[in-house]
Prior knowledge:
The protein is of the alpha+beta class and 883 residues long. The strands form eight sheets. Strands 1, 2, 3, 4, 5, 6, 7, 8 and 9 form a nine-stranded mixed beta sheet that branches. A six-stranded antiparallel barrel has the order 13-16-20-19-18-22. A six-stranded mixed beta sheet has the order 30-31-32-33-35-34, with helices on both faces. Helix 7 (270-291) runs antiparallel to helix 8 (300-318). Helix content is 38%, strand content 25%. Mean pLDDT is 88; it is low at 437-448.
Amino acid sequence: MKKLSSSQVRQMFLDFFKEKGHTVEPSASLIPKDDPTLLWINSGVATMKKYFDGSEVPSNPRLTSSQKSIRTNDIENVGKTARHQTLFEMLGNFSVGDYFKKEVIPWAYELLTSPKWFGWDPNNLYVTVYPDDEETKKLWLKVGIAPDHIVPAEDNFWDIGQGPSGPDSEIFYDRGEKYDDLAPDDPENYPGGENERYLEVWNIVFSQYNHTPEGTYEPLPRKNIDTGMGLERVVSIFQDAPTNFETDLFMPIIKKTEELSNGKKYGGNREEDVPFKVIADHIRAITFAIGDGALPSNEGRGYVIRRLIRRATVNGHELGINDAFLYKLVPVVGKIMQAYYPDVLEQSDYIQKIVKNEEERFNATLNDGLRLLNDIIADTKKDSKKEISGKDAFKLYDTYGFPLELTEEYAGNEGVKVDEEGFDAEMQKQQNRARNARGSKKSMKVQRDLLLDIKTPSEYVGYSQLTVDATKLDDIIADEKLVNSVTPGEGEVELIFDKTPFYAEMGGQVADTGKIYNQNGDEVAEVEDVQKAPNGQNLHTVKVTRDLKKGEQYKLVVDRSFHERVENNHTATHLLDQALRNVLGGHTQQAGSLVRPDYLRFDFTHFGRVTDDELQKVEDMVNEKIFASIPVQTVVTDQKTGKEMGAIALFDAKYGDEVRVVKIDDFSIEFCGGDHVKNTNQLGLFKIVSETGVGSGVRRIEAVTSKDAFDLLNDEERMLKEIGKTVKAPTTDETPGRVKQLQAQIKDLESRQESLETKLANQEATDIFNNVQNINGVTLIAGSLKNVNINQLRELADSWRDKHASDVLVLGTGTDDKANLLVAVSEDQVKSGIKAGDLIKSISKYINGGGGGRPNMAQAGGKNPAGIEDALEAAKAWIKERK
Length: 883
């Protein structure tokens, strides 16, 4: 058997089919493109659907690929079995109406057995065939497969309902007697059965029938070939690995995890190896998914990533890793996959930041959540139903971030079930509360049927004019009815004109406001809001001040100041969007916006807080474009031409056949239907007000332009002068220096105070350290101190360790409603079985808290200082039980 690396196996497969005239297709993104039926790319053929369904004709009907894929339907089995993976690579060769059985079967045999290629012993190969597929059986016999190595199998027919279908043939490799995990006469001990000896490595699908709606199978006029070979499985054969995890695709990750764990080692114990396997598997999927543009969130693909990160984090705790660690494995994944996926290592810093941010957010609540879950499980076991209530499961989800699946898995390991229906009911209640909290702001729902029937056209002319002298009032809606006239005092009224300069709220830009006049020049209505009606008309919500009649001509006047300020801020969002991409990287995408006259709000995808330096660079870049007086061009064209121009489109936006492209030199080119200035100099000035997070992976910038930016700077200057007076700085320029001076003085005073507190604590600790108790041969120092913090407890523990004062140290301190406990254990006693982490978990309940740590040092926090003395007594009892 050749000894090949995973990179060599992958390349050998692709090279073989390249020699057979195949085009090597690059591995596509895990995020499906133009396929709403898939959450992830889950197979090699998933990227070829456009060819097999006839929507696109490939330049070469022979294709081959190594496609990264994600499947999460068996996520609970990952790590517990030899071959379940969330991310895997599927090697495949495909024929779109070209070759068929008589070509693909000899090629498969050649690749597997030829010394030039895999060089496997033919005697180790077995194949399964569909019983009625005599042609496939004869071809396998012809190439050299022994008759008794051909196994008929009724399930060897690929059929997913209507559409292409056909028989398939699976290829198995006999790994030898050393992998026998079943008795020779066991009914599952055969190629295709549930066993470890016969490993399925390749499946060849002969797509030759069309499964009709009537349930019949008609021959396809153009037969296809679709094959799938799991890279991880094949590599395990070349590297004689018991499972996929002992290959070079996983072992470097496992070795790094060993380094990060609390002395845990991989191998030798299948149950204890599970956390290593889960972590190694999940970090591969997490790394590739984020590299392809997905981000952790509470829905869709983002929820999968979040769930994987949290499962891996919990498994890290099983190995004694209590801090963020997954992000440290990202470069390891990058190096393993570098030969075929160099982009992973190139994006390593970006991916690490996202993973670390998500880990730290989850770790902040994980200990409390796990403690609550353990308590719930313990209480549930007392109940004969052995089921966690939906309310408790939802609390874990809502308060501590535990996905339902994670709670189910954790509870399942303890033999406890979870009430899924109850959980769903609690989720529905929360959604109802959220809907009610949003209020009953008009959304046109009550008038939807009426508006659907209104087909009169309405033209928006606000791009070029803000006043229309004469436009016909086509429709009046009052009290949810079409009327011919309205008078003042009739409540909310909606109007549709044949043309209007009023912009309807859309794409983050707020609606215009303004006035409506009759032909005599009298004001008849005030426009308060404008929305798009279902049939595309601009629907004006107005306050009527004089009679209005259907069919008459009116003058419409937009509030110019309001509109121009909105234009300034809308153009600023385009400049800001591009500046963020330039400064932070191409991964940033617009995730929402609000353009008002007084400020703009811009949401974008990013892995963490934008630094002050980065914000300054963004702000400077936008102002640079403003001061350069760049003309803002608007081009009306079709989508294809717009994309060829380099226009950026929002990922989830839908565009019609005709689009508007807003172009600011070569700096910013975007599809946009909103209003914009004619030249960037009209913005005057751009100033960022704030940068915050609004969700996992989504940040928000609020900013102002023009006079609002000038006013902000004036306010900040006034504030700086006030601070200067307060700190007695001679001039404004000297204010920062004076503030730093005062901060240094405060820091010095705080340091002196802490030093005095430490001295007092040491004096108090002397009495405690002199009181050494002996409990069945274990020396213990235990006591409580006043007016100290957890850092000072740690310092006392260091002093205790230096003095070898006792075998075990237990200290407590509390003030008001806060309590802290610290446990330290000598190395000798750790080896004998007394571990600080176990002891702290046992006694922390007395202070209504929880905690953890290393075997030689652990700490806990709680809200019941009165329980400290009980905790100290419990520590003595705990040691006595152990000895």
